[in-house]
């Protein structure tokens, strides 16, 4: 009797410790931001049942605008928080290599829902073409960690998402010393695993290098963008770069079009009359927002169907001088995009070149 009861308790404990590996749990973690949008939309429709058509259109406009980051920078970051559960850790009691990819699915989707709600609501998808991992140090089992997700750069087709896995433990006053320590411990080469005289490190824990590896031009460029120090003193564990694109059906949509249609834009330029201009927002929209309204706003003749048609190729019909998304993504945004792309596009070219290797 006692052994039977003990067996039940152990089985229950085993199931509890591995609950995040249960069916549909992964899906919930991934689609949690989208579930929030869906549920919010559902409750909106319930509240709007007895509204007049004009009141319903106004209410829908307020709801969708509450999700849209009008005036935000495309380089804005989001946070995804998780922890190294038992089922996601390996025999070394560290977060397993495959679990980083699982966390990235949720982290990238959260960024998409945060920055691009109109594209998501219109039925757009963001397929993944590849991910590059740079393991710096392990994340111990049961440790809490953050994934700091940032849009790194884009071109006419691809976007590059930079994710930094970090843990907190040091005080903020230790930020500078932590960054220096991180820089000192990491092999100077960003694009391959740290090595020593015995060979290549194949685990997520880097092997200390006994022979310094001279940095290449590629490494020098990468170090400017992908610093190993965190401003708040958090410990950096892994950096990843994901290559993705935007699709509406089978049609590839240029990133700049998607960003500008969701309200992302360059900040207002200061002048002698307005040395500190008011940031763009819904109450102070950027100049290009008046071009988006006839496409996406029900109050201005737009609709979800019109937005879908625009993403599917309607943008091609506009002459070059009327392409408002170029102005929205110009200025300092374009300057930063070009600088970051010099580093991040090297990964794509390197991986495409590897296809020819036999």
From TrEMBL:
InterPro entries in the cross-refs: HotDog_dom_sf, THEM6_lcsJ_thioesterase
Top-level lineage group: Eukaryota
Stored Gene3D superfamilies: Hotdog Thioesterase (3.10.129.10)
Family: Belongs to the lcsJ thioesterase family.
PANTHER family: PROTEIN THEM6 (PTHR12475:SF4), PTHR12475
Name the record gives this protein: Thioesterase thiol ester dehydrase-isomerase
Organism field: Lentinula lateritia
């Amino acid at each position: 009797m006692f052994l039977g009861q003990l067996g039940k308790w152990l089985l229950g404990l085993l199931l509890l410790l591995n609950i995040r590996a249960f069916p549909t749990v992964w899906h919930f973690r991934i689609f949690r931001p989208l579930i929030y949008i869906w549920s919010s939309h559902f409750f909106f429709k319930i509240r709007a049942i007895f509204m007049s058509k004009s009141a319903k259109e106004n209410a829908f406009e307020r709801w969708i605008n509450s999700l849209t980051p009008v005036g935000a920078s495309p380089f804005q970051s989001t946070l995804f928080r998780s922890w190294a559960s038992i089922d996601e850790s390996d025999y070394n009691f560290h977060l397993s290599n495959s679990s980083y990819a699982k966390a990235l699915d949720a982290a990238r989707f959260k960024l998409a829902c945060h920055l691009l709600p109109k594209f998501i609501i219109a039925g757009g998808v963001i397929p993944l073409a590849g991910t590059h991992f740079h393991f710096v140090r392990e994340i111990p089992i049961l440790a809490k960690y953050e994934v700091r997700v940032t849009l790194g750069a884009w071109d006419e087709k691809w976007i590059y998402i930079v994710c930094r896995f970090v843990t907190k433990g040091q005080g903020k006053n230790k930020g500078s010393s932590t960054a220096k320590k991180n820089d000192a411990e990491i092999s100077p080469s960003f694009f391959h695993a740290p090595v020593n005289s015995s060979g290549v490190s194949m685990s997520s824990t880097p092997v200390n290098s006994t022979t310094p590896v001279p940095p290449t031009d590629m490494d020098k460029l990468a170090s400017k963008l992908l610093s190993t120090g965190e401003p708040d003193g958090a410990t950096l564990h892994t950096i990843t770069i994901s290559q993705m694109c935007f699709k509406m059906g089978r049609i590839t949509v240029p990133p700049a079009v998607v960003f500008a249609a969701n309200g992302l834009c360059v900040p207002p330029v200061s002048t002698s009359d307005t040395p500190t201009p008011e940031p763009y927002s819904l109450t102070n929209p950027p100049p290009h927002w008046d071009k988006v309204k006839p496409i996406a706003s029900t109050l201005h003749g737009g609709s979800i169907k019109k937005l879908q048609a625009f993403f599917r190729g309607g943008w091609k019909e506009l002459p070059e001088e009327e392409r408002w998304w170029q102005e929205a993504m110009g200025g300092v945004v374009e300057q930063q995009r070009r600088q970051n792309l010099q580093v991040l596009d090297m990964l794509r070219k390197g991986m495409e070149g590897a296809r020819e290797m036999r």
